[in-house]
Amino acid sequence: MDLKTATALRRLRLVSAPEAISFLLLLVCSVLKRTTDFNAVPVMGAIHGLLFVLYVLFWADAWNRAKWPLKTAALYFVLSVLPTGGFFAERRLKREAEDAVIASRARQEGVVNA
Asked: A Pfam family matched by this chain, by name (predicted)?
């Protein structure tokens, strides 16, 4: 994996958890808006919207650079629209990055998969 691909995956990973947290907070704010006088939906909606747009942009870049199959790309996109999906995306991306580092070190050391 080259540096640009690793950077694209890292950016997507770093925005995944905050996007998921903002989604959950937006849901809580929506409930509070309907049950109390507290209305933070406009603020949380803007924050979540920004994070979601960043997630989609970083997702498209990662898909392009990592050459994911359609199934993998679709999974990461679907995870972005589920309330806790960003946490699962972050965990999978972390594992994928760790596997790429291990494979890269093995190639550098001349280890060949049998």
From this structure: DUF3817
Is the residue at 59 inside a domain? yes
Burial 33-63 (b: 16+ CB within 10 A, else e): eeeeeeeeeeebeebbeebbebbbebbebbb
- Establish if 114 belongs to a structural domain: no
Question: Whole-model pTM?
Answer: 0.83
| Three-state secondary structure call for residue 76 | helix
User: Does residue 33 sit within a domain?
Assistant: yes
Query: Each residue of 14-48: pLDDT tens digit?
Result: 999 999 999 999 999 999 999 999 999 999 999 99
HSE (CB half, 13 Å, CA atoms) of 21?
Answer: 6
